[in-house]
């Protein structure tokens, strides 16, 4: 097979091989490890760009391997896959940079970066998965590779968080497994996008079809932190900041959301799902989660916890978007996948910066940080404004599409959900910004470091600035051909006009 | 891209580009001067021919451009910003935090100018948000308690407004079947919307927050007085007009008759015009009085807009009138606000000069001088329609009562509060204030020739009628003025609202906690007390466990039922 | 030389045993590794022979069955032979470094006899020959357990010995009855004449009970955890990975050759119930152990339960589903062999580092030995049945088969078992992630030890990607009775 | 009833007694004896039953039994070694779980 | 009449079995067991299986008996509570009872089923006997038709010895040779040994045509070795591990080599060339005899050393 034909595999392999090599390296080889990591990340972005160009030309490179009778491991680069893969590759680079800075002088870096790369590899696998089975494989792999990251610190809390995390995600994985197994047993080995057979199956046995849907979505919902299954996310906050950033912005919750997208669009087909009435409960649940997450975020006093509940709320936007029947809502959901990633990663980077530089973990300690760390605070502000949905940050664009999509789908109540959630978002983010910018510093910082820098260490600062800039650019230039929005539109056009 | 288009593009961008000057300490000193220059392109733009610029990459595909309305708004806005900045140059000379002020100033400016050239809802909304949130920083510039309080109220109301706007925009966009985001096209689609009143109400109220509609106005009298004077001037003069601008841009005036809506708007407008006047009269701060005056004036405009919904065909005549009115009010109010800054700094300038200077905008506002006359007369002329309620015109005439009282109150307060030990008035402040006063004194037909205004002189015959109400008022005031002793705190209904909120919170707290335990040192107190939180957490956990149990059981039941069903 | 590869499977290990008993220390090691290489090559050439001519028989001493003993090379036998070759050679490499000189001296002959026994069992198609093979296997295994010579391992060895002897006798009783009934010992011939009469039912009952006792299926399992948990690390790996598979292999062979799935559905159900009990009990017990190797030993117990689920899923009605179940079971067996061996080796390294058996002593090891933890984790992935791994693929096929036959109970059991296994594996993990004061005083194992553990674990993962290579060896006709 | 069959039944009896003893006893030596009885019973069944089916001596089972006896003696010897070693180490002739609460 | 003898034998057999399991004294139960072995060899004769009878006498009763008695002597020191037969409150008792009766019932039912074997394997044996190189069918089966079984069986024996070696105290403490201080016995045994050896060789030789063979011969040889050891002659031969091991594998090595040679000629494993089958079988048998004798003896020897530790420790 040609180089281009194997591109999906290469994309996966860049981070996978990096992980392997990193595991082999001795702990002390920090320089080499960092270089390797960065080179791999850059190479991956290059490959992804190549791949995106191919996909834009209506090609879908595909690599498949039959691993069980009638069951193939398929890596396929379609437009939707590239959305998620693109996000992951960009954020991998940023997060790697950040992690290098963040973990300077801390132990266990070999382990950390190894699993980190593995985690990215699984995310890549999830995005490039060409069928449910492949998806399942990488979905589980993701659980495995993130667990060591969650418990990285080895403290009792982090171990406990790890346990909670596993309890949730593995149970979810099992539910998904049953769903996928049922699907394969009764419907067959179908690539994503072949929805016609599912439609036939649904006609003949609607109950089984509903059960499959329920199980698949139930499995995904755990990672996507939909309402009753969101408990792991705030607990997993004990992990180091880059991990939180990765979990929230790229890897785990997004994997769940992405899976829901795949199930609704490429397994069942949105029309079918709507006809059968599967989707409405899901959008109700997502709406409830949106409000509930925001409401809970309002009550948190820990920065990262607040951000975590904010994620609970924000990821449901994606779910809500894709449950709206009609192209506009879908665009909103898809593009929010990316936008939320960029903004949330910025926020977590900044939260990490505050913690690392000044030892700040609680919101009330943030007073006056704007003066001490202006750049970080600026980035944080941009991220927070984006979360609220204030233009020109990217969050507005997705919110806009969601709202109009909801109206187009005839679900007017959704916009009140959006508005209510935005209000709540404002209510929990604006006071933070207020403290950062407008209140004077109170006494000493809890634990100040990096005093030689005006703001914080460059490796910590630059990624946050990059992602902040990206999230503004994604909103500001949403109309351009290179924007996530255009790509989401492309996906939707292909999805709705096969 | 033609030169004009480039100019259009540069107008909102220039202030943002100037922000780069903060990067270097040397250029930082230049900032105030740059801030004066920043609105200049806008001023020039307002004299250029109408044009438009498509920016397909920006947001969801943007359209920027100018037409008559835009140009008028641009003109007085830029003038106001220029002279206020000029005033601010001196006003903030000794301020420690001047840099911060100018930073936010430039951002707010960018937002204000940007929204005035936006032809599509997304860029409009963006600039609107930029302006709103940057202005927050201006409001709380002094960091004193009252400023922070005002800032909080401002922010809450602004966010509320933003959300209403967003909802309205969603619905508007839906009405056009999501085919366009351009104001002009949306307007034509809007009347076809189902439940038209929902988007209209949303947009009306949403922008009404900025425009100081009654019951949404609380932030205005709170924020305007506490902001530094130049900021108050632009807030009250320019930014408040952004709400009006938005109404003009998006509401389908002249296309559709909505009598009920129109009537309600008229009533609201009149309420604002009179009650705000009443409340303003009971204020002790000169700036607060001015703020209430702004509410009152915007009430008049609301009133006029309501009339359009009743009689759509008057739109073509009303629009220039409204533009004139806005222009007049902005400049006059700006000049008045700046003059508050003079009360401490009249050293070296003849007090008489100042008083005369102050009188120009004040009289103009009452409607007995120059542009004020024109605005008032034009308004009355246009509203003299059979289709409208007959009490409308007299009411508007009577509203001069409120304005007169307010101006009188303002002047007397200013006189009473003038500093016994004034400091020197810097040239820049002088220039800024003087500039606005002069503009105020110039005839609008000079400044906005596009509007084709009738000459002031031809209106002289109406002068007695214009003087009637203010005159009567002054006479009445002379007799009863000494009995006005009680006050209403600035922000009026915000206090009962806060009371209600606190009462609710404590009530819920009481519901959830038998013995309220207080935790020391928990500085960020969330909306509820700790026991409530604990109870909530427990409830959540319980629900969660029940739910997971339920889902687990469900799965089991499913498996078993499948087994049974086979 | 057509007879060479198949005979080599027996001759080479026996030669190895002879060599290791007769030669001096240096030559013993050298010759052992030469022979291991030879055996690996031999296996490969046998594989190619199989590709060339398909299933074939080899009459020992040129006396064809039923008079003589015939060896049979089919896909299943080949898979198991390859599996034992892989695991055994890696374990040998590990042992060579891990064991002390005295232990190693004794290890080699046991090892070779063990391998010879395994190969003879995989290949044999003669009932009595299987018995002798089983005995050889059991005694070699007992010897290996006793290799550490302390009281605990002696007790374990005794328990194991008695269980194994009882099991062998049960099997032999069955053989006696079958021979008396059918007059033949050759399995293919027996399957031609077989009908489920009373005496053959009793015979098969005895055989199955005996063999399952050797496999440590649920109620007869109590010998296994101390034996596997108490033995020396490479021995534990060999025992858990290969030895218990041998007796199970015979059950599987009997079941499919004699088409017992047609004869009796309730027997299959019974097997399934035993398996389910084993899965749940083993998982639960593993979760509650405090010693690392006991966790792994109990995990073996649970895994055996999965193998047992093949039987209820082999049905005469649905050929496709039965085939899936069979393939799944075989894959599980194979994956378990690789993963469990890898896991034991990795665990051995961990215990070597800390010098204690307690789980608590693992604190801080994931920082000190990340590669080793990784090896443990990879093996754990396969044991948990998470993708991508051989264990997952096997489980997947079993679930598919159960679903196609609407036997939902087994689906539920498999899933609960997976969750349990995830729980105990991650429990171990969380211990290694713990950070404690003074958690830096570890011994460092040799690199070979870590790499061998890793290689097996990696193989168990790779099996998840290359399952078709294995499953292609199992034609559908091998399972389903026509 | 041929004498072959009688001895087969005898073998059945030996097996029963052997199993009973094997499970009942905790003393390792007695267990070993029980195992040997069980083995002998099995051999008797093997030879007796198959010869009774044919009515004449059958050499195959006899050869099998010879092999079986040797295997059994090997196993017995091995077990004895283990038992003796165990006894030497612990002063017990029973496994830990059979030693009672003391 | 014959049936009566058979029934009597069975009764004695079962009685002895019961006694050997359930007598209070361990020594007695071992004695009963040895006795049972002797009765069993009678039974084998009744079953027309003189080969097994010989083997049972030599191996089952002889070697096993010696080993058991020897072990008994060493187990005296252990806590030995006499077994209680009727432990009615113990679940174990009921389990044992249930299993015992279950086994009897199941086997009884199975045995009582009428038999009609479809495959006449015995006929095939006699058909192919001529080509096997020997005339005695059992030897033909053991060393030709099913020689593969035998090969593995020898491996089992070696393994057993190896375990014993594993559990030997340690290499530093050689086995203490506690010979009997009886000069007369010493002298007698010196005479006896060649005779016993001769008997063993005879059994081996006879094996090809009539009952007898490597196993029986090996067992006899082992008893000779044991006696030899008891009087303390040449035991340093047994002390040397190399001699021990090489002795064990001697037979197996010959067997494997002889079996593997045909592989080089393109024949299956363990094929004997037709012409030399008899000689080769004899060669193998010779090797096996020596090895089996040596192994059985080593088992005796090493099982003693397995419990030497105790002797040194007990005061």
TrEMBL record, chain A:
**Principal localization?**
membrane
| Protein name as catalogued | Monovalent cation/H+ antiporter subunit D family protein
Question: Which subcellular locations apply to this protein?
Answer: Endomembrane system; Membrane
| PANTHER family named among the record's database cross-references | NA(+)/H(+) ANTIPORTER SUBUNIT, NA(+)_H(+) ANTIPORTER SUBUNIT A
GO cellular component terms, semicolon-separated: endomembrane system; membrane
Q: Which InterPro entries match?
A: CPA3_Na-H_Antiporter_A (IPR050616), ND/Mrp_TM (IPR001750)
Keyword Cytoplasm listed? The answer is no
- What are the protein's UniProt keywords? Membrane, Transmembrane, Transmembrane helix
Which positions, given as ranges, span the membrane?
6-25, 37-56, 79-100, 112-139, 165-187, 207-233, 245-265, 277-295, 315-338, 379-401, 413-438, 459-479
Q: Where is the NADH:quinone oxidoreductase/Mrp antiporter transmembrane domain?
A: 129-422
User: How is this protein positioned relative to the membrane?
Assistant: Multi-pass membrane protein
TrEMBL record, chain B:
Q: Which InterPro entries match?
A: ComplexI-like_HydComp (IPR052175), ND/Mrp_TM (IPR001750)
Domain (NADH:quinone oxidoreductase/Mrp antiporter transmembrane): give its ranges: 118-342
Q: Which Pfam families match?
A: Proton_antipo_M (PF00361)
rRNA-binding among keywords: no
Indicate yes or no for the key word Transmembrane.
yes
Q: How does it sit in the membrane?
A: Multi-pass membrane protein
Q: What is its main location?
A: membrane
Q: Where are the transmembrane segments?
A: 6-23, 30-52, 72-92, 101-118, 124-141, 153-176, 196-220, 232-250, 256-282, 289-311, 317-338, 350-370, 390-415, 427-448, 460-480, 546-565
- Which keywords has UniProt assigned to this entry? Cell membrane, Membrane, Oxidoreductase, Transmembrane, Transmembrane helix, Ubiquinone
Q: Where in the cell is it found?
A: Cell membrane; Membrane
* Domain of life, source organism: Bacteria
Question: What are the GO MF terms of this UniProt record?
Answer: oxidoreductase activity
- Look up the record and report any one GO term of the cellular component aspect: plasma membrane
Name under which the protein is recorded: NADH-ubiquinone oxidoreductase
TrEMBL record, chain C:
Among the GO biological process terms of this entry, one is: ATP synthesis coupled electron transport
Q: Which InterPro entries does the protein's record reference?
A: CPA3_Na-H_Antiporter_D, NADH_UbQ_OxRdtase, ND/Mrp_TM
The cellular component terms of Gene Ontology attached to this UniProt record, alphabetical and capped at eight, are:
plasma membrane
Record domain NADH:quinone oxidoreductase/Mrp antiporter transmembrane: where:
124-420
Keyword Signal listed:
no
Residue spans making up a coiled coil are none
Topology within the bilayer: Multi-pass membrane protein
* Membership in a protein family: Belongs to the CPA3 antiporters (TC 2.A.63) subunit D family.
Q: What is the protein name given in its UniProt record? A: Hydrogenase 4 subunit B
TrEMBL record, chain D:
Membrane-spanning residues:
6-25, 32-51, 63-83
Location of the protein in the cell? Membrane
Q: Which GO terms describe its cellular component?
A: membrane
Pfam families from the xrefs? Oxidored_q2
Q: Which residues form a coiled coil?
A: none
Q: Which InterPro entries match?
A: NUOK/Mnh_C1-like
Keywords attached to this Swiss-Prot or TrEMBL record, sorted alphabetically, are:
Membrane, Transmembrane, Transmembrane helix
Q: How does it sit in the membrane?
A: Multi-pass membrane protein
Put simply, this protein is called Na+/H+ antiporter subunit C
């Amino acid at each position: 097979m040609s180089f281009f034909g194997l591109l999906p595999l290469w994309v996966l392999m860049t981070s996978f091989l990096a992980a392997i090599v990193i595991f082999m390296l001795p702990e002390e080889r920090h320089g080499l490890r960092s270089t390797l990591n960065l080179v791999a990340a850059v190479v991956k972005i290059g490959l992804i760009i190549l791949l995106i160009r191919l996909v834009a030309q209506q090609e879908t490179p595909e690599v498949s391997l039959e691993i069980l009778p009638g069951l193939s491991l398929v890596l396929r680069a379609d437009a939707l896959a590239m959305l998620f893969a693109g996000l992951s590759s960009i954020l991998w680079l940023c997060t790697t940079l950040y992690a290098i800075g963040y973990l300077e002088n801390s132990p266990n870096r070999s382990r950390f970066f190894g699993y980190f790369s593995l985690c990215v590899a699984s995310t890549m696998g999830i995005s490039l998965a060409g069928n449910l089975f492949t998806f399942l494989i990488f979905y589980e792999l993701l659980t495995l590779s993130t667990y060591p990251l969650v418990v990285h610190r080895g403290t009792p809390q982090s171990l406990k968080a790890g346990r909670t995390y596993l309890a949730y995600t593995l149970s979810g994985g099992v539910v998904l497994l049953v769903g996928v197994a049922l699907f394969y047993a009764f419907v067959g080995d179908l690539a994503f996008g072949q929805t016609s057979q599912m439609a036939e199956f649904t006609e003949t046995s609607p109950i089984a079809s509903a059960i499959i849907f329920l199980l698949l979505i139930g499995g995904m919902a755990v990672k996507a932190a939909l309402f009753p299954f969101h408990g792991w996310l705030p607990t997993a906050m004990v992990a180091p900041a880059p991990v939180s950033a990765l979990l929230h912005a790229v890897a785990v919750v997004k994997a769940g959301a992405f899976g829901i997208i795949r199930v609704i669009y490429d397994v069942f087909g949105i029309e079918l799902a709507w006809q059968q009435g599967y989707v409405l409960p899901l959008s109700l649940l997502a709406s409830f989660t949106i409000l509930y997450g925001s409401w809970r975020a309002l009550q948190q006093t820990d920065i990262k916890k607040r951000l975590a509940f904010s994620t609970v709320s924000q990821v449901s936007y994606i779910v809500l978007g894709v449950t709206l029947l009609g192209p506009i809502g879908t665009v909103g959901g898809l593009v929010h996948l990316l936008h939320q990633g960029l903004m949330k990663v910025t926020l977590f980077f900044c939260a990490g910066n505050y913690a690392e530089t000044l030892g700040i973990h609680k919101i009330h300690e943030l007073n006056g940080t704007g003066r001490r760390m202006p750049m970080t605070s600026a980035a944080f502000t941009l991220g927070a404004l984006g979360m609220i949905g204030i233009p020109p940050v990217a969050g507005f664009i997705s919110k806009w599409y969601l709202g109009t999509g909801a109206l187009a789908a005839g679900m007017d109540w959704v916009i009140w959900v959006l508005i209510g959630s935005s209000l709540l978002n404002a209510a929990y983010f604006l006071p933070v910004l207020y403290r950062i910018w407008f209140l004077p510093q109170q006494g000493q910082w809890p634990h100040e470091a990096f005093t030689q820098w005006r703001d914080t260490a460059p490796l910590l600062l630059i990624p946050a600035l990059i992602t902040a800039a990206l999230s503004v650019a994604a909103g500001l230039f949403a109309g351009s051909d290179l924007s996530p929005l255009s790509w989401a539109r492309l996906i939707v056009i292909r999805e709705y006009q096969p | 891209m033609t030169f004009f288009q480039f100019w259009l593009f540069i107008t909102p961008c220039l202030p943002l580009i100037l922000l780069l000057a903060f990067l270097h300490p040397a250029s930082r000193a230049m900032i105030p001067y740059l801030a004066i220059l920043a609105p200049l392109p806008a001023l020039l733009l307002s004299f250029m021919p109408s044009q438009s610029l498509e920016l397909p990459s920006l947001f969801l595909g943007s359209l920027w451009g100018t037409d008559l309305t835009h140009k008028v708004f641009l003109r007085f806005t830029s003038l106001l910003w220029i002279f206020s900045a000029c005033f601010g140059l001196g006003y903030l000379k000794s301020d420690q935090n001047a840099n911060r002020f100018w930073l936010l100033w430039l951002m707010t400016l960018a937002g204000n100018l940007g929204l005035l050239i936006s032809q599509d809802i997304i860029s409009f909304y963006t600039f609107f948000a930029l302006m709103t949130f940057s202005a927050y920083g201006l409001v709380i510039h002094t960091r004193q308690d009252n400023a922070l309080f005002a800032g909080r109220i401002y922010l809450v109301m602004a966010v509320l407004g933003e959300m209403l706007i967003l909802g309205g925009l969603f619905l508007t966009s839906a009405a056009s079947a999501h085919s366009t985001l351009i104001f002009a096209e949306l307007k034509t689609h809007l009347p076809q919307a189902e439940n038209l009143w929902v988007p209209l109400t949303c947009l009306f109220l949403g922008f009404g927050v900025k425009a100081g509609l009654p019951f949404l106005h609380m932030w205005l009298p709170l924020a305007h007085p506490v902001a530094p004077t130049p900021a108050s001037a632009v807030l009250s003069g320019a930014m408040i007009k952004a709400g009006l601008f938005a109404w003009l841009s998006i509401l389908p005036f002249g296309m559709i008759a909505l009598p009920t809506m129109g009537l309600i708007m008229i009533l609201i407008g009149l309420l604002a015009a009179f009650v705000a006047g009443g409340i303003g009269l009971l204020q002790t701060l000169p700036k607060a009085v001015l703020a209430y005056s702004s509410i009152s004036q915007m009430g008049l405009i609301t009133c006029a807009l309501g009339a359009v919904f009743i009689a759509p065909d008057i739109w073509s005549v009303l629009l220039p009138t409204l533009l004139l009115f806005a222009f007049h009010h902005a400049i006059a109010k700006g000049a008045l606000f700046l003059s508050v800054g003079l009360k401490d700094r009249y050293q070296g300038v003849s007090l008489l000069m100042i008083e005369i200077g102050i009188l120009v905008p004040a009289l103009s506002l009452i409607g007995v001088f120059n542009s004020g006359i024109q605005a008032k007369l034009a308004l009355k002329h246009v509203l003299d329609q059979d289709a409208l309620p007959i009490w409308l015109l007299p009411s508007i005439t009577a509203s001069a009562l409120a304005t007169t009282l307010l101006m009188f109150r303002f002047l007397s307060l200013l006189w009473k509060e003038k500093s016994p030990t004034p400091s020197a008035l810097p040239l820049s402040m002088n220039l800024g204030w003087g500039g606005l006063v002069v503009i105020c004194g110039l005839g609008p037909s000079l400044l906005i020739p596009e509007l084709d205004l009738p000459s002031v002189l031809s209106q002289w015959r109406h002068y007695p009628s214009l003087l009637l109400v203010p005159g009567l008022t002054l006479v009445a005031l002379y007799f009863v003025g000494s009995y006005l002793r009680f006050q209403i705190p600035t922000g009026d209904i915000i206090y009962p609202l806060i009371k209600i909120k606190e009462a609710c919170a404590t009530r819920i707290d009481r519901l959830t906690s038998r013995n309220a335990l207080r935790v020391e040192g928990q500085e960020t107190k969330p909306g509820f007390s700790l026991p409530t939180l604990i109870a909530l957490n427990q409830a959540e956990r319980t629900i969660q466990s029940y739910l997971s149990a339920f889902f687990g059981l469900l799965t089991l039941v499913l498996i078993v039922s499948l087994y049974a069903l086979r | 030389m057509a007879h060479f590869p198949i005979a080599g499977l027996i001759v080479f290990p026996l030669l190895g045993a002879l060599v290791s008993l007769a030669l001096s220390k240096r030559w013993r090691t050298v010759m052992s590794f030469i022979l291991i290489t030879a055996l690996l090559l031999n296996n490969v050439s046998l594989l190619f022979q199989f590709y060339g001519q398909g299933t074939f028989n080899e009459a020992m001493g040129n006396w064809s069955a039923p008079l003589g003993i015939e060896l049979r090379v089919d896909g299943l036998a080949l898979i198991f032979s390859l599996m034992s070759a892989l695991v055994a050679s890696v374990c040998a490499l590990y042992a060579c470094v891990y064991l002390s000189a005295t232990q190693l001296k004794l290890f080699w002959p046991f090892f070779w006899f063990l391998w010879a026994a395994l190969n003879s069992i995989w290949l044999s198609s003669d009932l009595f020959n299987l018995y002798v093979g089983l005995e050889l296997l059991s005694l070699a295994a007992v010897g290996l357990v006793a290799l550490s010579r302390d009281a605990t391992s002696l007790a374990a060895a005794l328990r194991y010995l008695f269980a194994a002897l009882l099991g062998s006798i049960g099997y032999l009783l069955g053989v006696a009855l079958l021979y008396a009934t059918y007059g033949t010992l050759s399995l293919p011939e027996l399957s031609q004449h077989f009908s489920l009469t009373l005496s053959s039912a009793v015979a098969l009952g005895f055989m199955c009970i005996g063999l399952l006792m050797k496999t440590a299926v649920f109620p007869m399992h109590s010998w296994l955890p101390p034996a596997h948990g108490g033995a020396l690390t490479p021995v534990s790996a060999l025992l858990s990975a290969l030895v218990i598979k041998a007796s199970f292999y015979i059950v599987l062979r009997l079941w499919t050759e004699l088409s017992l799935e047609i004869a009796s559905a309730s027997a299959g159900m019974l097997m399934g119930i035993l398996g389910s009990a084993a899965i749940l009990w083993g998982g639960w017990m593993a979760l509650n152990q405090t010693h690392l190797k006991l966790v792994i030993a109990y995990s073996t117990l649970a895994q055996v339960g999965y193998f047992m689920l093949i039987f209820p899923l082999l049905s005469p009605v649905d050929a496709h589903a039965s085939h899936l179940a069979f393939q799944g079971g075989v894959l599980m067996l194979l994956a378990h062999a690789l993963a469990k061996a890898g896991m034991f080796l990795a665990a051995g390294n961990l215990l070597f580092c800390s010098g204690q058996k307690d789980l608590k002593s693992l604190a801080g090891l994931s920082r000190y030995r990340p590669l080793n933890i990784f090896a443990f984790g990879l093996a754990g992935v396969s044991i948990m049945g998470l993708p991508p791994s051989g264990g997952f693929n096997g489980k997947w096929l079993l679930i598919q088969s159960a679903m196609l036959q609407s036997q939902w109970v087994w689906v539920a059991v498999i899933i609960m078992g997976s969750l349990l296994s995830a729980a105990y594996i991650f429990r171990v993990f969380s211990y290694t992630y713990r950070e404690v004061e003074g958690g830096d005083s570890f011994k460092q194992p040799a690199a070979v030890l870590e790499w061998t553990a890793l290689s097996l674990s990696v193989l168990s993962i790779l099996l998840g990607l290359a399952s078709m290579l294995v499953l292609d060896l199992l034609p559908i006709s091998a399972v389903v009775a026509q | 009833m041929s004498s072959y069959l009688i001895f087969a039944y005898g073998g059945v009896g030996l097996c029963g007694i052997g199993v009973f003893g094997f499970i009942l006893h905790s003393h390792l030596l007695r267990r070993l004896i029980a195992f040997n009885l069980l083995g002998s019973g099995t051999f008797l069944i093997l030879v007796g039953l198959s010869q009774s089916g044919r009515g004449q001596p059958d050499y195959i089972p006899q050869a099998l039994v010879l092999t079986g006896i040797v295997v059994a003696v090997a196993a017995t010897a091995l077990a004895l070694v283990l038992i003796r070693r165990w006894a030497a180490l612990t002063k017990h002739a029973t496994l830990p779980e059979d030693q009672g609460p003391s | 009449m014959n049936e009566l003898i058979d029934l009597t034998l069975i009764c004695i057999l079962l009685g002895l079995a019961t006694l050997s399991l359930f007598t209070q004294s361990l020594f007695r139960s071992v004695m009963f067991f040895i006795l049972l072995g002797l009765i069993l060899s009678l039974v084998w004769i009744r079953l027309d299986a003189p080969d097994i009878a010989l083997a049972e006498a030599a191996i089952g009763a002889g070697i096993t008996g010696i080993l058991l008695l020897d072990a008994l002597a060493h187990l005296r020191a252990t806590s030995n509570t006499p077994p209680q037969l009727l432990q009615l409150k113990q679940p174990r008792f009921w389990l044992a009872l249930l299993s015992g009766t279950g086994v009897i019932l199941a086997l009884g039912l199975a045995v009582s089923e009428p038999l009609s074997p479809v495959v006449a394997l015995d006929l095939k044996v006699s058909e192919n006997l001529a080509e096997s190189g020997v005339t005695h069918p059992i030897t033909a089966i053991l060393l030709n038709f099913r020689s593969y079984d035998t090969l593995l069986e020898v491996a089992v024996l070696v393994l057993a010895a190896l375990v014993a070696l594993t559990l030997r105290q340690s290499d530093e403490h050689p086995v203490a040779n506690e010979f009997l201080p009886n000069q007369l016995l010493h002298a007698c045994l010196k005479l006896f040994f060649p005779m016993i050896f001769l008997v063993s060789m005879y059994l081996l030789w006879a094996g090809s045509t009539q009952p007898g063979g490597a196993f029986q011969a090996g067992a006899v040889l082992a008893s000779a070795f044991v006696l030899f050891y008891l009087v303390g002659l040449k035991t340093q031969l047994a002390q040397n591990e190399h001699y021990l091991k090489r002795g064990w594998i001697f037979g197996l090595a010959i067997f494997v080599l002889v079996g593997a040679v045909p592989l080089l000629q393109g024949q299956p494993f363990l094929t004997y060339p037709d012409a030399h089958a008899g000689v080769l079988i004899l060669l193998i048998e010779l090797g096996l005899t020596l090895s089996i004798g040596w192994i059985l003896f080593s088992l005796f020897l090493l099982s003693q050393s397995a419990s030497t530790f105790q002797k040194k420790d007990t005061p």
